[in-house]
Structure formats: structure tokens, C-alpha cells
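Subject: sequence -> C-alpha cells, single chain

Hey, anyone have a minute? Need the predicted structure for the following. Not urgent.
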Amino acid sequence: MRFARDHRNWLLAIVASSGLAVAAGMSFRDSVIADQTVGKAPIGHGRSMTTAFRDVTKEALPAIVSIETRGKQVELTSGAAAPFGEDSPFREFFGDDPRLKEFFERMPKERQTPRQVPRSRGMGSGFVIDESGVIMTNSHVVRDAEEVKVTLHDGREFIGTDIKHDPFSDVAIVRIGKVEGLKALPLGDSDRMEIGDWVLAVGNPFGLRGTVTAGIISAKGRGPGIAQREDFLQTDAAINPGNSGGPLLNLDGEVIGLNTAISSRGGGNDGVGFAIPINMAKWVARQLIDDGAVQRAFLGVSIQPVDSKLAKQFGVSVGEGAIVSNVMPDSPAANAELRPGDVIVRVNGHDVRGPRGLQNVVEQLEVGKSYDLVVLRDGDRRTIPVTLGDMPERLALAGRDDHADSGSESTPPADEFSEIGLEVQDVAPEVAKQLGFEADVQGVLVSDVKANGPAHEAGIRAGQIIEKVGSRSVASAKEFRQAIEGLSLEDGILMLVRSTEGARFVVVQ
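Reply:
Had a minute. Here:
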């Protein structure tokens, strides 16, 4: 089978290399003979690729390390403490059943001897980024480890003396100190990589040290939902368990990605692997090395992508910019007077292509410095300067009163809009508090939604607040009715809808 596959690829290469000759008027037979007698181009191209892979691998392997972690030691008592102790992994199964607890407490004291649960162990990969003894790997490889053992390519073993990690990006650094003969890998520019570029993944899959696989960049800007900060490179180079933390290399031998995850149905390689772009990873690593933590700039907006329906309403291309759906109080965005409905298309000279793009650009800017944002507002393009703040540890909207009393304020009557398929009413403060909103929330309350109607299909549900229709704010059912007059369901009606989880724009059509 392998010979047949290689033979087929060789024939396809001959056909490709003969294309110009055939186009120039030579017969296919003559062009093949010319290739066989003059350049033997297909074989030469194959040998060139082999040489490139070989050279990159030879230079990279000495910098690749194997990482083995051990978790904390847990001590259990085989009597009452075993199922009921604070650190027992069995507690959730036994619960607090008094009969079981009494049974274990009655056990003879000699049977209640302490015992140790085997330490958890983990395996991963890493690579030297500084010859002073700094290694880059994934946060999930070293997180919660009590001991991190690093094995160099030549077999020497060291215990990591300083481990810093950033769970947001899944990047970590491990120091092993000054070691003779360390070689660092050069870090490239992941922004220059294009779909179709050849790459090599190097690591220790299944504990098989120094394994090299080849593939291409399959896609860029992936966000499969496995980390809080995502802008992954996707590759079909084989990545398996144990590859995490290893480098993804270009044909110049530069690291352009940090292998971090796979998409797999059976736990092994299915041809879909993800790597953190090295430009993001080295920005994180530099802060971990210098400060031990990562500082991220903060704008203070909730944003959503521009899909095909929203693109028509806002007058932009699909995927262009990011729509502001909420501005957090007392945030840099609020101070700059950004508004819900603004479409941020550029930040500090960088084009914005969706929420992840905006987030990644903003977070890496300097805290306390002013930057220009280009936004589209009501069809007009304008530049707004914003002074960025330091990202809070926990991002949340203004707090809500969880102890709302059950006042008897009367509920305003609902207005029905049958064509749209919903009913709305004025928002009474007590009702708003009971639903989880602030008492002074502005908008109209959705009291009922017709199943499978236009509003339902757009994702609107009873209990939500409609704050805007188009660019017009609505504070009452009367204003809502005035706002939708003359608007067409065929063209789509843009609405800003708030739930207890945040606000977003929808198009009712």
C-alpha cells in the first residue's frame, strides 16, 4: 500500500511538472521524456523536502525536553477519615450518611492506619527558549504539580526550580537554572504563517521522546472553546497526548506555535491539532519571566461577532469588526463614551476581525496609555481615543440585588405585536429586580413570545429586556411601538436584547 501511494504521488508530481511543457505545445509523452532525461524534477523536489525536514529536525531536537509531573501527596486513613475526610476523593460517593459514618468509626483502631494514595502523574513536552535555563510549555502540563522533572534530549534530568503559568492563554515557563550545553530554539513570527505552509511538530507523544511529524497549517484564528484566550493555528501534523507543550516549527527551524490540544473522537490524532501562535505565547512568557504574572489591558465592553444578518443592519461586511453590545460602568470604554451598537473596526492601526481579534489586540496594549479606536456609529466612521485600564481579576457587570423584596407594585399591561410574535410591557422596578436585573434598567420587558414566530427564531425569550430598536432606545411599550412603525420584517428589525447573562444584538426577520 505504501509503495502504491508513493508511486501515485510521484506520477502526480510528474504530471504537475509537465504542465508547462504541454501548454507550450509538447505532447504529454514528450514532456515526460523531457523530465526523465533533463531535470528529474519530481525526484529532486522530494529530495529537497526531505533535506529541509532533516535539517530542521537536526537543529531542533537538542532543544526539546520531556516533562514529567507529580501531584501532591494525599494521605488517607482507612477508617472513618477515608470516606469522610476533607481530602478524600471518595467523599462525594459516601456523602454524609450517618449510618456509613458510624460503621467506619466502629472499625478497630488497628485497621484505621494512615495510608498514602499514589501521586498523580503527568507527561508533556517543552522546549528551551533561553540558554539560561528557561523552558516553555503548556500551563495545563505543569498546573497543580508539586514536582516538575525535566529530561533533556541527551538524557540529563533536572527538577524545575521555578514554575510560572498563565491559565488564560495556557502558556507556562519552567526554570532549571544554568545548565551546560543548553540550546534555545529561535522564536519566529506566527503572523507570517499562511494556510498551506509546511510545519513540523516535535514532542513526546505517548512518552516516545523526540518524535517528529510533518503537516501543514490547515487554518488560522481557530477558537474551539478549550481555553479562555484562543486564536489557534490548526495543523494536520500528527499531535497526540504527550505532545502538549512542544513546538510547531516552520521550515526555517523557527517556533511558530506551541502545541496545545487536539480534536479527537478516540483520544488520538484525527488530523486536527491546535497550537498557540508563538507571538501570543512569547508575549505571555516574557511577562511570566520578568514579573511572574501577566498584565492585560482592559477596554470594558461586551462584544459579539458580525454575522450575515447583523452585517446588513450595520452596513459592514460579514466578520468585519466587533459589535459593542454592552459598555461596563466606570470602564475605559464608558469614559470614552463608547455606546452599544458601535462597531469597532480598528484598534491602534490593526483591523479587527471579530471578538477574538479585538480581545487579542487590546489585551497586549499598554495599560494607562491612550489608543485610537475606529468605530462605525449610525453609518458614520469616527475615531475615538481610549485610555486602557488594567483588567480586573473578575469581569462582571454591575452587581445585582439578590435580596429583592416581593413588593406588590402592579404589573403594567402588555402590548401585543403579533407580526413580530411577542408581547412587551413597561419594566416595573420590582419586576426587574425579581428577574435579576437592576431596578433602573432601561427598556421594555418581553412578557410573552410566540413559539416559532420571528422573535422566537431570533432568540428572544420571555423575561428579557429589549433596550433598542435599530439605533433608537426604547423605555416604554409606547416608544417600542413607535420605533418599529414603518420597519420591515422582510428587511429585518435590529434589536438590542438584554438577559441576565448580558446584552446582544439580534435581527428579527
